[in-house]
Structure formats: structure tokens, C-alpha cells
Amino acid sequence: MKKYFLTTLLASALFAFNANAGGVGILDVEKIVKESAAMKDIQSKVSKKQDEYQKEVTKKQNELEAEQKRIEGKKNVLSKEAFEKESKAFEKKLEDLKTFVDKKQNSLKKASLEGMSKVNDKIKDIIAEISKEREFDVITPAAQTLYYKNELDISDEVL
């Protein structure tokens, strides 16, 4: 009799929990990042800008290498003071190039982060809409879920 009572109580508690609990959805975040058209677009634009910046940097590096050879070639012709003056001017140009590279890298990082932030905001909106439609209370990342039924995966809908 006790066993029957405990089983009935447990079954009732589980039924009550399930009746009050909403659904759970699963989202494969890695899939979204890899396959999202918006993310691919951001990566493509950043890569294109990176290539443009690299061409600029390479051109400036080549110019500086040629200037360095020119200065070294005049070492025996110039006075010590004149050589030091040209060497310092050259070092300033090297520092300017380093600053230029740092600014371009920071600009790329900032643009990439801003783009991803906008995509993340849109993904959150889409997830909220799907959650409302399918009455999900929780969406959890697939990578942090040990087991789930495929029908709980909303990744394709989000994409």
C-alpha cells in the first residue's frame, strides 16, 4: 500500500511538473556561426578589408626596405651627424608604420565585433519569436546538452 501511494504521489508530481513546465528548445550555436549568411558576409567583408590593409602594409614595408638600403649605402659618404639624422627619420617612419598597422587591426576588430553584435541581436529576436510560437520557456545550447530529441533543435529555423 505504501509503495502504491509513493508511486502515485511521484507520478502526480511529475505530471504536475510537466503540466506547468514549458517546452525546451535546443540551439546549435556553432552551426549558426558557420552557416549563417550574415556571419559569412561579415567574415567575407573583414577578410577583404584585411587583404586591402595587407597590400598597403606590404607596399609601405617595401618602400622602407628600399629606403633602409639607400641610407646604409650612404653611411660612408655622409657625416656621422647626417647619417644619425637620416637613421632617426627612418626609425620614425618605422614607428609610424607600426602605428598604422595597429590602427588598421583595431579597426578590423571593431568592425567585426560590431557586425557580430548586430547578428547576435537579430538571432536573439528570432529565438524569442520561435520561443513564443512554440511556447518554449528555455533555449539551451546543443553543445551543453547531453541528450535531446531532434525535434527540439531549432537551429535550422533560426538560420
**Spatial arrangement of strands, main beta sheet:** 1-2
* Gross geometry: rod-shaped
Mean pLDDT: 83
Count of runs of 4 or more consecutive helical residues: 5
Strand content: 5-15%
Please provide the count of β strands. Answer: 2
How do the SSEs run, as a string of H and E? HEHHHEH
In short:
By secondary structure, this protein is mainly alpha-helical. Helix content is 77%, strand content 7%.
How would you explain this protein's 3D organization?
This protein is mainly alpha-helical. The protein has a two-stranded parallel sheet. The N terminus is likely disordered.
Write the layout of secondary structure elements.
Blueprint: H1 2-20, E1 23-27, H2 29-35, H3 37-73, H4 80-134, E2 136-141, H5 155-158
Helix pairs in contact: 3-4
